[in-house]
């Protein structure tokens, strides 16, 4: 769907004031005053609803019950600004509804809130919002990785959103952090017993391979350091340290010997008298 041009116009004022509103979205006793030209250009579902012969088309009122008011607020905010924030605003309750005040759990991870935004974007066909929410999820885990939060977020993503792009992003994050995730007891609930066992074995294999690579890197560093000392000795020595050596200038050979640890060790010998340096 097309995006709404905003050059020279601050649609936030229209959103705050509700002036010229011709579309109302109601969610659990909370109403949001919208404008068809803004909402319908970005959501094919809204467009179909207002153009139908059903109640939504006749009354200009769309009821949303499958999402919470704060998620709806973020959807609306995006339609008017191209972005959304975490902080709740104070929508006006509809008089005929009897629902209580909306409360937001302060312990809900931001990543879960972004997943819910992705879910509503997928449901109403607002692709740009779905992409933005997915990017916010990815960035949040890049900034601060927490296995428990990831498991909660992944469960929410698989249960609430049908966006395959979000699912793929969650799978990639899981693959990159497999070693941390295999120790989470929530893993079985997310993927099942058999898949969890496979992932644990794969995680152990990955950890073992990482340890082997690290050991090899450290060994290589030690060998390079030993060879560096040999080069330094060559550069600093002009004559053989054997006083009986008749060689006028220092010529040398580098010999490799194996250490008990299996790593190569190098020694320097005078090429004339075979004295070890």
| CATH superfamily grouping of the largest domain | Potassium Channel Kv1.1, Chain A
- Judged by helices, strands and strand pairing, the structural class is alpha+beta
Average pLDDT, rounded to a whole number, is 84
Q: Summarize the main sheet.
A: 4 strands, mixed
Helix content: 40-55%
Q: Strand tally, please?
A: 6
Gyration radius, rounded: 33 Å
| % residues in beta strands | 5-15%
Task: Count helical runs.
Answer: 12
Q: Report the order of strands and helices.
A: HEEHHHEHEHHHHHHHEE
Adjacency order of strands in the biggest sheet: 3-1-2-4
**What form results from the Cα inertia axes?**
elongated
What quaternary form is this? single chain
CATH top level of the largest domain is: Alpha Beta
Known CATH architecture of the largest domain = 2-Layer Sandwich
Number of domains: 3
Low-confidence stretches are: 91-102
CATH topology of the largest domain: Potassium Channel Kv1.1, Chain A
How far apart the termini lie comes to 78 Å
InterPro entries: BTB/POZ_dom (IPR000210), SKP1/BTB/POZ_sf (IPR011333)
Organism: Trichoderma parareesei (Filamentous fungus)
Protein name: BTB domain-containing protein
